[in-house]
Amino acid sequence: xxxxxxxxxxxxxxxxxxxxxxxxxxxxxxxxxxxxxxxxxxxxxxxxxxxxxxxxxxxxxxxxxxxxxxxxxxxxxxxxxxxxxxxxxxxxxxxxxxxxxxxxxxxxxxxxxxxxxxxxxxxxxxxxxxxxxxxxxxxxxxxxxxxxxxxxxxxxxxxxxxxxxxxxxxxxxxxxxxxxxxxxxxxxxxxxxxxxxxxxxxxxxxxxxxxxxxxxxxxxxxxxxxxxxxxxxxxxxxxxxxxxxxxxxxxxxxxxxxxxxxxxxxxxxxxxxxxxxxxxxxxxxxxxxxxxxxxxxxxxxxxxx
Length: 305
Fold this sequence. Notes:
By secondary structure, this protein is an alpha/beta fold. It has 12 helices and 11 strands.
């Protein structure tokens, strides 16, 4: 028994002739007749008496008609429910982000995402890059916001933007909002950094090594908030993401660019290359792309303190 056979049967029962049923279903009359016969063969009963140019339901046909209509209605309702679930984002969306991006990128996009997909249960996981990539690969996460490199079998990382790493310094140490800082200036000051378990910590370490600043690395911490607090207390300077600088309104720190080629980090969305994203995940990716584009056009917050 196939759905199109049920549709043809109901159409013939309602139309009273095979020819009108074929017109209604937009199929050739012989094809419709053949499918009804197959339906009868499958059920083991005759559904119609053929009366000249018309057809009439047999007792078995009259008994089967409401059942066929109910089956077709259930299928139609199921299709409508699936489309509605998709429109409303019914289900669960699992998002991951590294700790140096999650507080700045995710909160602004969660509210509009919830408004657009009222039935979507949103789960957020903040973790290190390697753990997030494993979770995406294991289908525990639909999407993860990370920095490159994001190398993992079966994972594709779409770079949606980049941001500068700025020098965070105690406000009293700032040489001026527009001057920026030189390598020589940095060498004269202790450097506070994230631990290298964070990709940002590895990026900072790589920058310091390339500029001959490694000797100044005197403290490593596990949290970006701790780095900023130590800088504010005058214990050293650090490299921090520009998004963190934008969010800092305390006035305890100044944020300055590095002369001679400032360091940057890429911002990427990691997903399984063989998995179709649910609609809420597609919408989230769009919101993050728009947010990155807007941040690129806004004020950079450099030199504030």
